[in-house]
Specification:
It is built from twelve helices and twelve strands. With about 325 residues, the protein is α/β, with parallel strands linked by helices.
Length: about 325
């Protein structure tokens, strides 16, 4: 952590899930990260996590509380604790896309925003929605994560695609499976690995997966990073507008070219070393083949992009510390 991005006073960062952005952001600003998790049913989970969060805030009495939204329940809890003055310090919400535009209970968002001293979003396209609620907002893309492994293999062995996937509703998984089938017709040596616990029935996939596809299942962090770094290209896709995916930051840190969804903030930020798809099976297949043919150029561009993003990151985090220090 650089001195220019260190917050004065005691800061904590609360999340109800494990996610790389929380870890890297907390580390950069000098906040103590608290990943509160409970594996029980929904009602029990909320009861346990609410209780743990209240106890944490009361025991720590921090000068700054950062929190992730979603969870919308966590965000509403922090706003309530601020209202009741259980939290006497500043509150900073880190709003992901589903926190800015939640699928349910969106009426809570203006109230939560009004009880934040600052709201962070991943890109400037999300800021107007926060500012419309009267919030003070700063766009802070994910810090580039530290990767234990960096690009190793690309020029040796078969060309490989690593699809960073959680089997969420916004991921065009069926299109990727069909793209793999299309690629296999002309380039059967190209392999496509799809991460996460497979839910083929949930996405409506019937029958066997293409023979050039590997469903990896859940990967522990070290194995995930090793597999990503040893791939030829990282594929990370979303159908959400204005959504910047975590796998893109991981790919840049590892030095691996990318195929990403063609939304405006993603295209603007990852402007080197990446190809952009409309999420259709045919286009994904075409770009996999193009990535193979243009791999040397894309790899050089990723290296250039990493340096650019690291410089931008330092400036943005300095702005964040300044805004939090002068908030309230």
């Amino acid at each position: 952590m650089e001195a220019s991005t260190a917050l004065a006073g005691r800061a904590i960062w609360i999340t109800w899930e494990r996610q790389r952005r929380n870890r890297s952001m907390a580390a950069r600003v000098g906040a103590t990260l608290h990943e509160l998790e409970y594996r029980g049913g929904a009602i029990a989970r909320y009861c346990v996590l609410i209780s743990r969060t209240v106890r944490l805030v009361r025991s720590q009495q921090p000068d700054v509380v950062f929190f992730q939204n979603p969870s919308l329940v966590l965000a509403a809890l922090i706003a309530a604790l601020k209202t009741l003055r259980v939290i006497r310090g500043k509150t900073v919400g880190d709003f992901h896309n589903a926190g800015v535009h939640p699928p349910i209970a969106s009426f809570l968002v203006p109230w939560i925003v009004r009880h934040c001293d600052l709201v962070l979003v991943s890109n400037s396209n999300l800021a107007p929605a926060i500012e419309a609620h009267g919030g003070r907002c700063l766009a802070v893309p994910d810090p580039l994560p530290h990767m234990a492994h960096t690009a190793q293999a690309a020029s040796t062995g078969p060309f490989s695609v690593f699809f960073v996937c959680s089997w969420a509703a916004d991921e065009p998984i069926g299109a990727v499976l069909e793209a793999a089938r299309l690629v296999g017709r002309t380039a059967p040596d190209i392999k496509v690995a799809i991460t996460g616990r497979a839910k083929l029935a949930a996405i409506g996939w019937v029958g066997e997966v293409p023979p050039n596809v590997e469903l990896t299942g859940f990967l522990a962090d070290d194995e995930f990073e090793r597999r990503l770094a040893s791939s030829s290209v990282v594929l990370d896709l979303t159908t959400r507008a204005d959504c910047m995916v975590c796998g893109a930051y991981e790919a840049v840190s590892a030095g691996v070219p990318m195929i990403l969804s063609n939304n405006e903030p993603t295209r603007r930020y990852f402007h080197k070393g990446a190809l952009f798809t409309d999420n259709s099976a045919q286009n994904i297949a075409d770009l996999i083949l193009r990535a193979r043919d243009q791999h040397a150029r894309l790899a050089r561009e990723v290296s250039e992009l990493e340096g650019e993003l690291a410089s931008s990151e330092r400036r943005t985090l300095a702005d964040l510390v300044r805004l939090v220090s002068h908030a309230g």
